[in-house]
Amino acid sequence: MAAQINPSILSADFARLADEAEAVRGADWLHVDVMDNHFVPNLTLGVPVVESLARATDTPLDCHLMIEAPDRWAPQYVEAGAGSVTFHVEAAAAPVRLAREIRAKGARASMALKPATPIEPYEDLLPELDMLLIMTVEPGFGGQAFLDIMLPKIRRTRELISKHGLELWLQVDGGVSAATIERCADAGADVFVAGSAVYGASDPAEAVRALRTQAEG
Ligand code: DX5
Ligand code: ZN
């Protein structure tokens, strides 16, 4: 699969979200970080903002839920217009049931792992998912340094995906930039979230193109 670049609006200007979505036209997905101040020590946005943003842009929304009780909330993000919904396995009460519900409602189902959460216990769940997200920083804030120690986990996950012959996308999120994206791609990631590396650039759309070229290099 060609590399996909998903700019994270966490690094955008929240007062101008429609314009900020337009500024990254050509990106594959718009990554929307939902934080509840419980699962992570930060608070961002919720269902009404996702609903408005879905109406304001043609770019599909990749909602990353860093929240407690995703079993209760995730389906509402599908209804709000998200094309992909990611829940954290550390917070989910019933990840298989939740993934099936997200798919049944018509979105791609995705599961995220914090840095200290291993992939191996979840090998048998992979066929239930459309994407797996490996966090390459502790979730909660943009602009943190990429954790190199996650590269072996990316590699092992790619091996598991191949072993089972799955179509699953493998996303990385946190500290992805021109300096780190090639290492992620080499390890087997194919979907790249980038917040500060895109919205911190003078030309965000150009930054997306440059990251894609590098990832495909
Ligand atoms: C962090 C979020 C990320 C964040 C990435 O918890 O999940 O999506 O926006 O930002 P950068 O790319 O700046 O590390
Ligand atoms: Zn994210």
From TrEMBL:
Pathway, per record: Carbohydrate degradation
Annotated keywords: Carbohydrate metabolism, Isomerase, Metal-binding
Cofactor binding note: Binds 1 divalent metal cation per subunit.
Record-annotated active site: D33, D173
Catalytic activity: D-ribulose 5-phosphate = D-xylulose 5-phosphate
PROSITE patterns, A to Z: RIBUL_P_3_EPIMER_1 (PS01085), RIBUL_P_3_EPIMER_2 (PS01086)
CDD domains listed in its UniProt record: RPE
Taxonomic superkingdom: Bacteria
Entries under InterPro entries matching the protein: Aldolase_TIM (IPR013785), Ribul_P_3_epim (IPR026019), Ribul_P_3_epim-like (IPR000056), RibuloseP-bd_barrel (IPR011060)
Cofactor: a divalent metal cation; Co(2+); Fe(2+); Zn(2+)
Family designation: Belongs to the ribulose-phosphate 3-epimerase family.
NCBIfam families given in the database record: PRK05581.1-4 (NF004076), rpe (TIGR01163)
UniProt-listed PANTHER family: RIBULOSE-5-PHOSPHATE-3-EPIMERASE
Function recorded in the entry: Catalyzes the reversible epimerization of D-ribulose 5-phosphate to D-xylulose 5-phosphate.
Protein name, per record: Ribulose-phosphate 3-epimerase
Gene name linked to the record: rpe
